[in-house]
Amino acid sequence: MNHLKFIDGHGSFLLKQPENTSYLYFPLASETGLKSAVTPNLGGDAKINQEIFLLEPVSSENLHNNRSTRNFWFTKDGIGAYSAVGASAEQESVKFTSMQDEHELTAGFMWQTLKRTSVAYQLSSTVTSFIPRDDNVEIMHITVQNLSETPQEITAYAAVPIYGRSADNIRDHRSVTSMLHCIDTTENGVFVCPTMSFDEKGHRPNKQIYYVMGCTGKGSKPTDFYPTVESFLGEGGTFTHPGAVYKQYAGTSAFSHTAGKEAMGAFRFEPVLLARGESADYIVLLGTEDNKEAIFKLFEKYNSAEKVRQALQDTKTYWQNQIAVHFHTGEHKFDCWMKWVCFQPFLRRLFGCSFLPHHDYGRGGRGWRDLWQDCLSLLLMEPENVGHMIAMNFGGVRIDGTNATIIGDGNGNFLADRNGITRVWMDHALWPLMTTKLYIDQTGDFEILNRQIPYFKDSQIMRGTEADHLWKPEQGNRQRTVEDTVYTGSILEHLLIQQLTAFYEVGNHNIYRLRDADWNDALDMASEHGESVAFTCAYAGNLLELASLIRLLDGHSTTHTADLLEEITLLLQNNTEIFDNINQKHKILSDYSARCRHNISGRRISLSLSVLAVDLIQKANWLMEHLRAQEWIDIDSERGWFNSYYDNHGNAVEGLYKDQIRMMLTGQVFAVMSGVAEEEHIRKITLSADRYLYRKEIGGYRLNTDFHELKFDMGRMFGFAYGEKENGAVFSHMTVMYANALYRRGFVHEGWKALKTLADTALDFDTSHIYPGIPEYFRSDGRGMYQYLTGAASWYMLTMITEVFGVRGEAGDLLLYPKLLSCQFDADGAASITIPFAGKNLTVLYQNSNNKDFGDYIIDSASCDGTELEVNEDSFVILPRNMLTALSDTAHRIIINLL
């Protein structure tokens, strides 16, 4: 039975007996660096970055293996022990029996509350965990209540193991690095300051202090401290049966010192006598700072129940207000779920692609794709802040069209790979244009194309095939001219170089080379002869999009020209005979890259914008015809699809192979989205995808059929069990992009089927076993995996807003063209969306009183705050940007009547 239910309009939810479901964890974070994961028994970890872990780093399997959780204990009348988080040997022994504690979890954006009731101990407790948005401190607010008819004397113990070092030390010198710990008790807690940190990078003095502090809700101090794991557990004790609690022996006093051992943030409070129904509050603060004064200041800020309750409310309000997009459809659960989908891009911004239990790879930060795809959601919620971010991101583009892959903190901070590893993902040039196009449509700021930005420079040249031995790190990471000045070029120039260099880097089938991988990082074993048909389709669409942007710029230009780097003329070939000639393409790319090996001329030439647009259109049209003629697979009169890849032996990956159907979703997504697929193609693709890839019970469309082969000539994905991750799982990101592509091409029912199945599976807790939100993928049994940090959330938002509700920018104006189905309206025939646009907060209400489907209704009338709006003859409404910006108030209501 599905016990998860939403309890308010902000997406907050309740789940009973959450500890009976494995692998659950919840993210908590501040805007200033602290990142935590908490489980239903307060397992998980907390950290600032790879080097600063407050609690021991965990992966998903540690969630049920580790017992070293955050804990809070009570002894009653001097006997027994009760864990407020359920992490005692006694409570675990009665799990799944009638003696199990009643337990429910409620949670919302950046907060979690556990409520536990013990019949055996006649106690009820709540533990609320959260991180204030602007402080690096995780707060536990514990309340215990006496349920007995008679008074009970209870003694409380806080118990938080302090790891206090780099995540690398979990296996690298774990014991040795504990010998660095200097541990001090204060009046209210335990401080741990390792003397140094060391690894292959050298020995470095340490100033970081890890702490656990606590008080009663009224500010009373602990009486005893157990500052090491050994002192808390006692000889033979465990974290679920600690000697300090069960034997109730005395600890050390405040202002004691010890060193060289595993640290423990554990302390005991004065016993309290609770009358029937009476309760007591306790506060535990855990965090890390680089000086004691900051810690004491934080303690003063949160050292009472009243202060903590106010901080919790402020935290809730802040994060709720960050979600600027609100949906109202005919399904309340879906609308609440969308709150979490809209929240996930914030989590990705804070956590990067690491630092949650399933995301146990990398060392934090984001990748190149993340920079651009995370902007999609920001453009829909806070577009005014994105232009600078986009401009800075272009600083990661190299002059040869590749880009930096090591991304530092802040915007526009790109680093040379310290290990000298050369990786070229062939899809990387795709995303900047997509994001820039959306930015211009949402804001009307086409002048961003003229903004001057430097290029990234390191030792990688010739599109990653050679090293520039003249470059030295001390020269900095900026491309220089022969005169040794930093060169800057327009964003338009950056985009042109990215798209044009990719056009010439083709394999034996005149398809863009796969190189080290494309969007699917697990296609990483076909670098010599692999080709990506899927992303060749995507790039063809990009060429047309860039041409449209250039024409937009031309329409607002006084000179109708662009000043571009002189070397770029080598790439502006419009002879279709060259397009057919693979060797000639290679020579053009090689000549251009050779001209840019170390320094560039810095000279610019003036080129006609209209001529540039025509050049790109010619290349796009040639590509599309080439793809249609060469890559389409016809199975029969009803089924067919595009081949997506060539393997490292130069063989097409898809089709009929030894009486076995091989089909991949990725090639279909970008063929449809780009316009390569014509309507008849799309009809066959959807029928084929429904037959070979769709599995409703596990989330919808699988990424591929089972190839029954390891395929070492393609990538590591085929080494995964079928149905796991990139090998045949329902991969949310690509499924959402499939839906987006179908909506763009008018296949609305098919698109909604893809979106709705993902949502339904995520919301079916008995199948997905995850908290609300969209996971990276659903595995073969439907369990949601790698939750929270997926780019699928941004694309789901984008699709719901711009396609389903049809609220999107077009060169800065607002265009309204809904593609809602009858099932998406409420009982009164209404559906609405609230969204910021042009500095205004707009609520768009669609009224469908006749309960018609998309394709059957037209827009009959429209109004804004009661003022009638013009309806275009093609049944859409445009609100010019100057009209919106001229409106005096910030909140406005647009009503669209459908007939």
From TrEMBL:
Keyword Glycosyltransferase tagged? yes
What organism does this protein naturally occur in?
Answer: Sporofaciens musculi
Q: What does the entry give for GO biological process?
A: carbohydrate metabolic process
Keyword Transcription present in the record's keywords: the answer is: no
Q: Can you give the residue ranges of the Glycosyl hydrolase 94 supersandwich domain?
A: 117-304
Instruction: Name the keywords, alphabetized.
Output: Glycosyltransferase, Transferase
Record-linked InterPro entries: 6-hairpin_glycosidase_sf, 6hp_glycosidase-like_sf, Gal_mutarotase_sf_dom, GH65_N, GH94_catalytic, GH94_Enzymes, Glyco_hydrolase_94_b-supersand
- Residues forming the Glycosyl hydrolase 94 catalytic domain are 318-458, 620-805
Q: Name one Pfam family in it.
A: Glyco_hydro_94
Which GO-annotated molecular functions does the record name?
Answer: carbohydrate binding; glycosyltransferase activity
Q: What is this protein called?
A: Cellobiose phosphorylase
